[in-house]
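Hi D.,

Good news: the full-assembly prediction came through. Inputs first.
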Amino acid sequence: MSDASFIRLFTHEVARLLAALESETGAVRERVITDAVQAAMFLDEPDASRAHHILGRLEAGQSEAADELAALTRELARREGDAAEPPPASGRIFDTEETRTLRSFFRDEVHEHLERVIGDLAELGPEGPDRHGFDELLRLTHLLKGSAGTVGLPVFADAAHRLEEALARSRGGTLPWSLELGERVVEIIDALLAYVDAVESPAARRAATAELELRAAALDRLSGGELTAAPGPAAPESGRFSAEAAASVVVAEPGDHRRRPTTHVLRVDPRRIDRLMDGVGELTFDRTRIERRVGEIELQSEGLARLGGALRRAIAALAASPDAAAAAAELSAIETDLCAQIAAVRDSAAALIDDAQTLRRTTADLQRGLTGIRMQSAAALFERLAPRVRAMARAEGKRVKLQLQGGDTEFDRAVAEQVSDALVQLLRNAVAHGIEPADQRRQAGKPELGVITLAARGEGESVAIDVVDDGAGLDTPALRQRLIELGAWSRERAETESDDEVLRAVFFSNVSSKPSAGLLAGRGVGLGAVRETVARLGGEIRLSSSPGQGTTFTVLLPLTTAVASALLFKVAGNVYAVPNVNVVETAMIETSGPAIPTHLRIRSDPVPLILLHALLGAEIPGDARTVPAVVIEYLGRRLAFTCDKIVGPREIVVKSLGPLLSSMSLYAGGTVSGSGKVQLILDPATLVRLAFPSIEIDQSVKADRHLPGATPTPRERGPRVLIVDDSLTVRETLSRALERAGFAVDSAADGAEAWDRLVSSRYDALVTDLEMPALDGFELIERIRAGAAADLPIVVITSRATDTNRARAAALGVKDLLAKPVSPRRLAKILGE
Amino acid sequence: VTPVPTAPPLISGVVNFGGGIVPVVEIAAILAGATQPRLACRGESAVLVEIDEVRAAVRLDAVLEVTTLRREGELWTGAGGGPIQLIDPRDMIARARSLLGGESTTR
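Then the structure:
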């Protein structure tokens, strides 16, 4: 049984073909036959073979085959009508690894083309696209429709087909271009983009399919229904139109008009590149080894030279005594040999030095080249975010213009992918809470159209991304009040700290995550998570705000994560590293006094000093009168730590310590030295946390709770729920629904992240998916049950609500197991109990 | 072996294996539970295990031989014929993970 959507697609192509047979010749004919052959490929056997057979004869010039083709489409249409239920859109060609890979390419392709289309549409005036514009639109839509079929996405193909219909009709004049049509077109394109993003997650895909159907239906209504989808060959109306659509495809052949330069995208599996990067790492170590060997040879040749000198002196001494003349001659011969040998060693040393230099150049080139492959332009990331912003603005009922700047700034693809969610969070904040409602903006004398700017720029070894809104800005007096209410700050501190310090506090967890916080409603939701994501990538985040003018978030990210510049130092005989970007300076501390000071004075500022020796279980050598200290800065905080010896700056290849040690927050990873020894990299974020315990608001809140005499914090906030699911769509829909239901919600993308959160803050309930990367749902629950939070209420949401899973969940004391898609209302009700 | 300060006793350090970093796991400490004082291994041998993409070097006193075991009822026997206690590395890694889970964070 062929899939209904594919039958529809095939029927449409046949209708076009039959119309073209009557009026067209040559290239157009060939083109429409090819299209039909392509569409036939998605039919099931034996339909596909039959269709191909007939089309083959048609191509060979046997025009009577046209009737058979018409008969076939009628038969297919009848069978489609007979089937009470369409077969599920899964199974047949969906599950192979190859299809998955293909679909990820398709996803890139769709983004590449449709983002550009959206950009073009945004610049259009009320008169709509010109002829070339329409041609280009039709060409791309048609192209994507075909590709969608190839990768087994009939829903996408069908919607693209309906978009193509509307566009063709508008181009032909039957459907005059209007602002409304433009809006519908943008909406369906956004829905297409959302669909390709959601396609790998069954639940998200269902949601995206529904949305797509909705948008396509809206477009159909505007364009007056789908005429060509009616089965049967060539109703005159549809025939004429279809021929026109076909012609437009041909017009868009290259050469004759101003097509935009297409960006050539190199698609490389990141894992492959990671392996190459490892290779480069090895090369670097080889270089170090060679250089050491060269050093050895040089030493040897020096020794030889000394030996030669000694021999010469001995010869001279012997020559002074006549008896030894013969011996002297012999010695002299040895000296000659020795000299020759010395020269040889010198030569080989010189050659080795050359080799090493070549190797150094090669590795540098390799590193640059590979880093280049990993690079992605900011535009690619921004264009993926733009439709999200438009969707958010629609959802919030706000008029927002998104400005993109610095699209040609490049940064690491891996960084771009990971930071994307964080940027979405910042953009959501800007749309929902930064930009004021239209009436407020009018009152403030601002234009109703809010402007959000997403700008990237290079800043030395970092890339800075600004998310700027021209909204009301943050209300720092209210924030101070919130900090007091939460018990995070004392009244005195809240009254005396600088505005900067108050803004910084926004990132540390729950300052404003309370749903009923009025002025700050939701303003801080997820900012803690954003900060953590950015910190994990080795970057940092800054916030500035001016009342009435707007808010600016700046995310600073390292250019690349693979090779980093680090400062190496020794403690107790072992070499450690810190990222060089965080190093401010090094200093010497006097240890002659009885105690090591708790603070250093760097210029005029006091900087807290961490006894790294103590932290690493070592001691400062008793005889040391001074020890070196390293001053680092992270998130605007400075601190110093002690060490035994500073080794110096090095380029290092950062490696993970592996899943077993991932919970050790003191280390950001490790690197392997030239001699093959592992060196640990300290995490500046953890050092800052240790030096400034007061900024960990989570813990101070917890402390309050356990102190019997402490003033109870006035909190009318709802219970805290942690949602764990690897699908962003699920996280978002459930978060929003639960927030509306009065819960304070955090989310995590996998079990490992969830565990981190559970360890660092307290939750009243957990909602988790089962199948997730890093640490799956059951492993997470087992870990929770084994640990302190043995009685935490847990609800499992899963697409696999099998009896086995239910039994396992029940054995682990899971409160409930819900099959996806989960009704948010039902979930809220269960959590409410 | 590079020591990892602040790690629980079951991790005695990390080593470089083929350019990657692998934690060295003390099997004695795992078997005893993380709360026990470290039971020192005398030997410098280790077996490298990889299970579900988790790699670990498990330190041993000595590797006696690499052999094929035979099953006799509930028991496994080696080439010499005597019963041999079998350790499931998957279970061992799972235990190590759960022991490492929360306690080692310095937060």
